[in-house]
Amino acid sequence: MPSSPIFHAIFFAAGALVGAGAVSIAESRRERAKPPTPTSTAIVEIGPSGAPGLVQRAGDVLKYGHPGPIFDCIQRKAYTLGYDRRLRHPAWTAEHLTLASVSPPPDDPNGPDRHKSVFKEDESIPFAFRSLLKDYFRSGYDRGHMVPAADAKSSQEAMDETFFLTNIAPQVGDGFNRHYWAYVESWCRKLTTSFSDVFVFTVPLYLPKQDPDGKWRVTHEVIGNPANVGVPTHFAKVVLASRPASASNPRETEISTGAFVFPNESIQDHTPMIGFKVDSTSSNL
User: Is residue 96 annotated as a catalytic residue, yes or no?
Assistant: First the structure.
């Protein structure tokens, strides 16, 4: 995706929604260890008062890296995502939608065929951290696209890439993935008829719920055998859309933003989408 003020703005908005980040595990490497470079800076120093004090030396402590969170950043034709190795689903996905990207190419009016696409494991992820097809088998959850196939109509390959399990998270099927969530995805695509550029972030969330004892806790299901794939409690859609402010002044850009958080559960079709909007004084989609 392009590096631009618009991209950075929506990236920041999506990050703010995530809250406490999940810890992911970096792939280990074997290499010949080299002895640390001697240094004259002590870890413990005696201050002017004679009291000992600790001195931070991040360069030494983090010589071989840090535990994270670190996400696998994956670039596809129609999207970019960060994969969470601990929860085994995307930490976030990012798209840049235009009227052309959500429409069939001019030389192929019928466009790519979703029925030719199949769900598949992503072999770019080490097996130990990879979500598997069998994890979803009889789990009671749909394999929910974070970047929908209908957003990738530029080619069959682009659509096929949306079926990698690195783009999938467990979603309630009836009433959500197959219904309300699909309506939200369609709404995002329709914005391209009014805006020249639409940036969409999709973020699986794990939000706290107040228990009968009054305390707030984060609890969630894990599917698979053995249990590996986290089931998000909620999903966020963060949208930033831009267009020229006027035909007479195309260099001036009008920007509209919106952020929505949906529970991973059945939602009645007639439920107003505004009820899931995250309050923001600058949000006007």
Answer: no
